[in-house]
Request: fold
Amino acid sequence: MPGGGGSVTHTIELSQYINPCLSHQCLILPKIEQDTSELDNSFPFKIQRIGYCRFIILGKIKRNFLPWLPVAPLIQFSFGISVIKKILSLNKANGIDIIQAHGSGVGMAATIAGWMIKKPVVWMMHGTSQAYSRISGFYETLLTKFFKPSHMFVLDDGSPAPDKFTRLLKQRVTIVFHAIDTDKFKPKPKPIHLLEELNIPKNSFILFSPHSLIPVKGQEYALKAFRDFVSSAHSKQFYLIMLGEGTLKKGFVTTVKEWGLSENIKFIDTIPNSKMVDYYSLSDVVLATSLYSNMNRAVQEAMACAKPVVAFNSGGTSKVVIDGQTGLLAKPEDVKILVNKIHLLYTNKTLREDIGKRAREFIIQNRSWKIRIDKELKVFNELLKQSIS
Reply:
């Protein structure tokens, strides 16, 4: 589907890990302006890039004059038409057993294609879009009601997604979790080259906030907590790295300048997931301030790297970040408690190391790709049996 972020990384990794269990797999992705041939050829399965109308002129009108203009649904509709055409052509050329779609928007198109070729359709929901917009959540619910997939995988990201979709589809829902490659995300020494690149002294205490700069992620609390932490410790040997893009970035940069902390707070553009392990390795503590849920992928990657996480206890966060065991929890929006938790870890290196070790053990035991893939294959086999009968 058009877009980016953790859901795209999740989709690609899932395709890679499940591929050895399949006789054939094809991943349909949108065409983008950059040359993706080298990337596409690196996968052990076929990548099909499809074009669609981006409604660029309407997008400019929306940004400058009419913010209510529904451009995103038009883009999804255009992409959906291309998806249907591609599925039909692939079925004619090679035959298809199961169609899997990521998200309700492209899921609608996949379901229509499934009706046309009489094949089961599975939706993979990366949480629920109502976390970001009530309107998006409303449309997501409507699409689920009217374009019921044969089955649905719902990622338990701590949001109400599992309960919501279980109510809508009843027995046709399987709850899954973020799976983490613990051979890739593992403890490593601080990368000296990255310290030099960011102009951070070697012995500094580094906080890392790897989340989008959008309202639901609560990044303003991370900034305030860092400001107060620096003030209370009476030192500027502390640094905060904020990795990500979003609508709040411009305002955050201005605020940080007003505080006189521009040298200590580093705003980094989004980077490839393959480089994330360097940033986790660089950090002493990882902050998670989402007011919706902090069971996201970044938190669990950090835990796999044996980094202590300080998180707001929102959504289902405590299922993963167990206070005092695999991380530290703070009351949502409570900056004072957040600062206290950071200070506790700053003054107690042994506690940082102990929590980090337990965090990694939790991820190894509970978030393996084998468990995740076995659960999905069981559903696929049942759907194939039903389609044959």
